[in-house]
Automatic annotation (TrEMBL):
Coiled coil: none
Taxonomic path: Bacteria, Pseudomonadati, Thermodesulfobacteriota, Desulfobulbia, Desulfobulbales
The protein, known as: Large ribosomal subunit protein uL10
Keyword Repeat annotated: no
PROSITE patterns according to UniProt: RIBOSOMAL_L10
NCBIfam families: PRK00099.1-1
Gene: rplJ
Pfam families with a match to the protein in the record: Ribosomal_L10
Subunit structure: Part of the ribosomal stalk of the 50S ribosomal subunit. The N-terminus interacts with L11 and the large rRNA to form the base of the stalk. The C-terminus forms an elongated spine to which L12 dimers bind in a sequential fashion forming a multimeric L10(L12)X complex.
Keyword field: Ribonucleoprotein, Ribosomal protein, RNA-binding, rRNA-binding
Entry's Gene Ontology cellular component terms: large ribosomal subunit
Listed InterPro entries: Ribosomal_uL10, Ribosomal_uL10-like_sf, Ribosomal_uL10_bac, Ribosomal_uL10_bac_type, Ribosomal_uL10_CS_bac
GO biological process: translation
Organism: Desulfurivibrio alkaliphilus (strain DSM 19089 / UNIQEM U267 / AHT2)
A GO MF term: large ribosomal subunit rRNA binding
Length: 174
Protein backbone atom coordinates (compact mmCIF):
# COMPACT_ATOMS: atom_id res chain seq x y z
CA UNK A 1 0.00 0.00 0.00
CA UNK A 2 1.43 3.35 -1.02
CA UNK A 3 1.83 6.24 1.38
CA UNK A 4 -0.95 8.24 -0.32
CA UNK A 5 -3.35 5.28 -0.05
CA UNK A 6 -2.53 4.90 3.64
CA UNK A 7 -3.15 8.61 4.25
CA UNK A 8 -6.47 8.33 2.43
CA UNK A 9 -7.51 5.32 4.53
CA UNK A 10 -6.55 7.13 7.76
CA UNK A 11 -8.50 10.21 6.67
CA UNK A 12 -11.57 8.08 5.83
CA UNK A 13 -11.36 6.27 9.17
CA UNK A 14 -10.94 9.56 11.04
CA UNK A 15 -14.07 10.93 9.36
CA UNK A 16 -15.97 7.79 10.39
CA UNK A 17 -14.75 8.10 13.99
CA UNK A 18 -15.80 11.76 14.07
CA UNK A 19 -19.42 10.80 13.36
CA UNK A 20 -19.60 7.57 15.39
CA UNK A 21 -21.19 7.09 18.81
CA UNK A 22 -20.13 3.46 19.25
CA UNK A 23 -17.03 1.61 18.10
CA UNK A 24 -16.52 -2.11 18.68
CA UNK A 25 -13.34 -4.08 18.04
CA UNK A 26 -13.69 -7.76 17.22
CA UNK A 27 -11.31 -10.56 16.30
CA UNK A 28 -12.65 -12.24 13.19
CA UNK A 29 -9.91 -14.89 12.78
CA UNK A 30 -11.37 -18.14 11.46
CA UNK A 31 -14.62 -16.71 10.10
CA UNK A 32 -15.53 -17.64 6.56
CA UNK A 33 -16.06 -15.02 3.89
CA UNK A 34 -19.77 -15.83 3.71
CA UNK A 35 -20.23 -15.36 7.47
CA UNK A 36 -18.36 -12.03 7.33
CA UNK A 37 -20.63 -10.95 4.46
CA UNK A 38 -23.67 -12.00 6.50
CA UNK A 39 -22.42 -9.94 9.47
CA UNK A 40 -21.77 -6.92 7.24
CA UNK A 41 -25.28 -7.23 5.79
CA UNK A 42 -26.90 -7.43 9.24
CA UNK A 43 -24.93 -4.40 10.41
CA UNK A 44 -25.72 -2.44 7.25
CA UNK A 45 -29.44 -3.09 7.81
CA UNK A 46 -29.22 -1.21 11.12
CA UNK A 47 -27.08 1.66 9.77
CA UNK A 48 -23.79 0.39 11.17
CA UNK A 49 -20.70 -0.60 9.26
CA UNK A 50 -17.93 -3.17 9.62
CA UNK A 51 -14.46 -2.16 8.49
CA UNK A 52 -11.23 -4.08 8.35
CA UNK A 53 -8.00 -2.07 8.26
CA UNK A 54 -4.44 -2.43 9.40
CA UNK A 55 -3.99 -1.88 13.11
CA UNK A 56 -1.38 0.83 12.54
CA UNK A 57 -3.79 2.79 10.35
CA UNK A 58 -6.60 2.36 12.88
CA UNK A 59 -4.24 3.54 15.63
CA UNK A 60 -3.41 6.70 13.67
CA UNK A 61 -7.08 7.38 12.94
CA UNK A 62 -8.18 7.20 16.59
CA UNK A 63 -5.52 9.55 17.90
CA UNK A 64 -7.16 12.67 19.33
CA UNK A 65 -10.68 11.19 19.29
CA UNK A 66 -12.85 9.87 22.14
CA UNK A 67 -12.04 6.38 20.82
CA UNK A 68 -8.39 6.43 21.92
CA UNK A 69 -8.98 3.68 24.54
CA UNK A 70 -9.22 1.26 21.59
CA UNK A 71 -5.50 1.66 20.85
CA UNK A 72 -4.48 -0.84 23.53
CA UNK A 73 -6.53 -3.58 21.86
CA UNK A 74 -5.25 -3.22 18.30
CA UNK A 75 -3.48 -6.56 18.04
CA UNK A 76 -4.06 -9.47 15.68
CA UNK A 77 -6.94 -9.60 13.21
CA UNK A 78 -9.17 -6.67 14.01
CA UNK A 79 -12.54 -5.72 12.58
CA UNK A 80 -14.05 -2.39 13.53
CA UNK A 81 -17.79 -1.83 13.82
CA UNK A 82 -19.00 1.78 13.88
CA UNK A 83 -22.47 3.11 14.57
CA UNK A 84 -23.56 6.72 14.19
CA UNK A 85 -27.20 6.39 15.26
CA UNK A 86 -28.21 3.68 17.72
CA UNK A 87 -25.53 2.08 19.91
CA UNK A 88 -27.84 -0.71 21.12
CA UNK A 89 -28.67 -2.25 17.74
CA UNK A 90 -25.05 -3.06 16.73
CA UNK A 91 -24.41 -4.43 20.22
CA UNK A 92 -27.40 -6.76 19.77
CA UNK A 93 -26.24 -7.90 16.33
CA UNK A 94 -22.63 -8.47 17.39
CA UNK A 95 -23.42 -10.35 20.60
CA UNK A 96 -25.98 -12.56 18.82
CA UNK A 97 -23.55 -13.21 15.97
CA UNK A 98 -20.72 -13.99 18.41
CA UNK A 99 -23.00 -16.41 20.24
CA UNK A 100 -23.88 -18.18 16.97
CA UNK A 101 -20.30 -18.00 15.62
CA UNK A 102 -17.82 -18.49 18.49
CA UNK A 103 -14.91 -17.59 16.19
CA UNK A 104 -15.99 -13.95 16.35
CA UNK A 105 -14.50 -12.61 19.58
CA UNK A 106 -15.51 -9.19 20.91
CA UNK A 107 -12.37 -7.45 22.20
CA UNK A 108 -13.65 -4.13 23.49
CA UNK A 109 -15.92 -1.23 22.68
CA UNK A 110 -16.10 2.52 23.27
CA UNK A 111 -19.40 4.32 23.72
CA UNK A 112 -19.26 8.12 23.89
CA UNK A 113 -15.64 8.05 25.08
CA UNK A 114 -16.13 5.34 27.74
CA UNK A 115 -14.47 1.97 27.26
CA UNK A 116 -16.75 -1.05 27.54
CA UNK A 117 -15.75 -4.64 28.24
CA UNK A 118 -17.37 -7.49 26.29
CA UNK A 119 -19.65 -8.06 29.31
CA UNK A 120 -20.67 -4.38 29.25
CA UNK A 121 -21.48 -4.70 25.55
CA UNK A 122 -23.61 -7.77 26.28
CA UNK A 123 -25.48 -5.80 28.96
CA UNK A 124 -25.96 -2.95 26.46
CA UNK A 125 -27.39 -5.42 23.96
CA UNK A 126 -30.12 -6.39 26.43
CA UNK A 127 -31.47 -2.82 26.56
CA UNK A 128 -34.33 -1.87 24.26
CA UNK A 129 -33.24 -0.28 21.00
CA UNK A 130 -34.25 3.16 19.77
CA UNK A 131 -37.19 1.80 17.76
CA UNK A 132 -38.45 -0.23 20.73
CA UNK A 133 -38.23 2.86 22.95
CA UNK A 134 -40.13 4.90 20.38
CA UNK A 135 -42.86 2.25 20.23
CA UNK A 136 -43.12 2.17 24.04
CA UNK A 137 -43.33 5.97 24.17
CA UNK A 138 -45.98 6.04 21.45
CA UNK A 139 -47.97 3.40 23.33
CA UNK A 140 -47.74 5.49 26.48
CA UNK A 141 -48.91 8.59 24.64
CA UNK A 142 -51.88 6.69 23.24
CA UNK A 143 -52.78 5.03 26.54
CA UNK A 144 -53.37 8.25 28.48
CA UNK A 145 -56.07 9.76 26.20
CA UNK A 146 -57.66 6.34 25.69
CA UNK A 147 -57.98 5.85 29.45
CA UNK A 148 -59.37 9.35 29.86
CA UNK A 149 -62.02 8.74 27.19
CA UNK A 150 -62.99 5.46 28.87
CA UNK A 151 -63.44 7.22 32.21
CA UNK A 152 -65.57 9.95 30.63
CA UNK A 153 -67.61 7.38 28.75
CA UNK A 154 -68.15 5.28 31.88
CA UNK A 155 -70.54 7.71 33.63
CA UNK A 156 -73.18 7.94 30.84
CA UNK A 157 -72.81 4.23 30.15
CA UNK A 158 -73.60 3.37 33.79
CA UNK A 159 -76.57 5.75 33.67
CA UNK A 160 -77.93 3.94 30.60
CA UNK A 161 -77.49 0.57 32.36
CA UNK A 162 -79.33 1.96 35.41
CA UNK A 163 -82.25 3.21 33.27
CA UNK A 164 -82.40 -0.14 31.48
CA UNK A 165 -82.54 -1.97 34.83
CA UNK A 166 -85.33 0.34 36.09
CA UNK A 167 -87.30 -0.25 32.85
CA UNK A 168 -86.95 -4.01 33.18
CA UNK A 169 -87.99 -3.87 36.83
CA UNK A 170 -91.12 -1.85 36.02
CA UNK A 171 -92.05 -4.23 33.19
CA UNK A 172 -91.82 -7.17 35.58
CA UNK A 173 -94.09 -5.52 38.18
CA UNK A 174 -96.78 -4.70 35.58
Amino acid sequence: MKREEKAEVVQELSASFAKAKLAVLTDYRGLTVSSMQQLRRELRDISAELKVAKNTLLNRAIQGTPFEPLSGHLKGNTALTLSEVDPVAPAKVLTKFAKDNPKLVIKTAVLDGKELTPDDLTALSKLPGINELRAQFLGLLQAVPTGFVRVLNGVPQKAVYLLQAIKEQKEQTN
